[in-house]
Specification:
Belongs to the copper type II ascorbate-dependent monooxygenase family. This protein is mostly beta strands. Among the domains are: 150 residues, Immunoglobulin-like (Sandwich), CATH 2.60.40; 161 residues, Copper type II, ascorbate-dependent monooxygenase, N-terminal domain (Jelly Rolls, Sandwich). It contains five helices and 29 strands. The strands form six sheets. Strands 1, 14, 17, 21, 22, 25, 26 and 28 form an eight-stranded mixed beta sheet that branches. Strands 9-8-7-6-12-13 form a six-stranded antiparallel beta sheet, with no helix packed on it. The protein has a five-stranded antiparallel beta sheet with strand order 3-4-5-11-10. A hairpin with an 8-residue loop joins strand 6 and strand 7.
Length: 467
């Protein structure tokens, strides 16, 4: 099942009613195959972990893989620098898997013993043995490492492509499957031989899919005229490890009497359990004054099954967050229009699922009621352009299936001229962001804009189509 990408665009003539969801006549080209903490002490806040660095860099990205393991990274030209901050005094490992399993993975192992740091570029064979063995070519370069009373910290770098395809996995623009491991014990002093890591199989944690080459986040300056509103779920019971829950919560805005611009949004994690259970959150704008919306706004929320249970009035997407991403900030010249006279109700759809629970973290995940959501930033100081969201993609149906035993299945669709002519104003739009999502079933997705003449040559447009 493939979820439509969301294309953000601006236009000087757009209004709220021009935000369109096309599922029947609009598609993107999609390729599918079978197939995002605290490190100072348990009592300290998550945000304090970056203070562990002896020589802090201006990191492009920071991600907590779980409550005990944080990674920071920065890309300069063809080099990528990582820092690991792990709550352990034993060894740690970090690397990449070709498919989410540890067999065939590329991984670096490091530890600190009696003040001396050991660090090795390793790989895991495909024979089922989880023991990482040392590479003949050491392409991960240690910059420094140390440990304090509670944590091990390692900083190292490598080339995006090490030119060692036999043992290393190249870091590309694709989604990378990050493997990480840690153990409370160090290997034998200076050990470099296979079979000497204490309990390697039980030290691995569930992999995390992350795009490492994404652009650095825009530094957001919170001006005094910017207001913040937290849209939170209310005591949602988290599903079991292998269960899925889609929860719909409706909010009513009464005090926004004039037009505002939404300029930023970010996820709110209610607890460490939320990090593992939240898959995606979609905020929808509802038009009209329907009695159903009024009743839903008074509720705690309700379980829903996605688009089928969402009122037709709530078909305009305002914001979308997916696991592995952080905040989204609109460009300085644009914002999403919000006004209670135009749209008084907003529906937040939250997808809960934890397909790969980290059993070692269950002690920290005792909270079973979740109050996560989205934090939105908006202002009455209007920007030059209104933003909109065009949701396009392959609507799951009987035509969109993956037969068993196939190494690759391609689903292809086209957003035809009739759709864009209806959705876009005469002077066109300016696309400034594209967010793609394929749930867990997709491995590759492409969005292509094809000029009219090229499309006509390939038979994608009727012969009378305008350029």
């Amino acid at each position: 099942m493939t979820t439509p990408p969301e294309v953000k665009y601006t236009s000087t003539s757009l209004s709220l009613s021009s935000l369109i969801t096309c599922f029947i006549s609009c598609f993107v080209i999609v390729s599918c195959l079978l197939e995002g903490l605290c490190v100072t002490s348990k009592a300290n806040a998550l945000s304090q972990s970056a203070t562990l660095s002896l020589d802090p860099l201006l990191w492009d990205h920071v991600v907590d893989l779980n409550e005990d393991f944080r990674i920071l990274w920065k890309i300069i030209n063809q080099d990528i620098t990582f820092e690991i901050q792990a709550r352990t005094l034993g060894y740690v490992g970090f690397g990449f898997s070709p498919d989410g399993n540890f067999a065939g993975s590329d991984i670096a192992i490091g530890w600190v013993d009696k003040g001396q740091t050991y660090f090795q570029d390793r790989h895991i064979k495909r024979n089922g043995d989880p023991e990482p063995i040392v590479d003949p070519s050491q392409d991960y370069i240690l910059m420094w490492g140390y440990e304090n009373r509670t944590h091990t910290v390692l900083r190292f770098r490598r080339k995006l492509d090490t030119c060692d395809p036999a043992h290393d996995i190249a870091i590309t623009n694709d989604t990378m499957r990050l493997l990480y491991m840690y153990n409370e014990r160090d290997p034998p002093h200076g050990s470099v031989k296979a079979g000497h890591l204490p309990n390697p199989a039980s030290s691995f944690r569930p992999y995390r899919p992350i795009v490492l080459t994404q652009r650095p986040h825009i530094q957001f300056k919170h001006e005094e005229y910017v207001r913040i509103l937290e849209l939170r779920n209310e005591d949602v019971e988290l599903p079991g490890a292998d269960e899925t829950l889609i929860w719909c919560k409706t909010f009513k805005l009464d005090d926004m009497k004039r037009k505002h611009h939404l300029i930023r949004y970010e996820p709110i994690y209610d607890s460490p359990a939320s990090v593992h259970n939240l898959q995606h959150i979609t905020l929808r704008e509802c038009h009209g004054m329907h009695q159903e919306l009024e009743e839903m706004a008074r509720e705690q929320g309700r379980q829903c099954m996605g688009a089928r249970d969402i009122p037709l009035a709530c078909n305009a997407i305002v914001a979308s967050w997916s696991r592995g991403s952080n905040s989204f900030t609109f460009p300085d010249e644009t914002g999403y229009p919000m006004e209670s006279r135009q749209a008084k109700y907003y529906l937040m759809e939250t997808h809960y699922n934890n397909l790969q629970p980290d059993l070692t973290q269950l002690h920290a995940n005792r909270q079973m009621a979740d109050n996560s959501g989205l934090k939105i930033y908006f202002t009455h100081v209007l920007r030059r352009h209104d933003a909109g969201v065009l949701s396009i993609g392959m609507d799951p149906n009987w035509r969109h299936i993956i037969p068993p035993g196939q190494s690759q299945v391609i689903s292809e669709g086209h957003c035809i001229e009739d759709c864009t002519a209806y959705a876009f104003p005469m002077d066109g739009v300016h696309i400034f962001a594209v967010m793609m999502r394929t749930h867990l079933i997709g491995k590759e997705i492409k969005l292509r804009q094809i000029p009219g003449q090229v499309a006509q040559n390939f038979g994608l447009l009727p012969t009378h189509a305008a350029e």
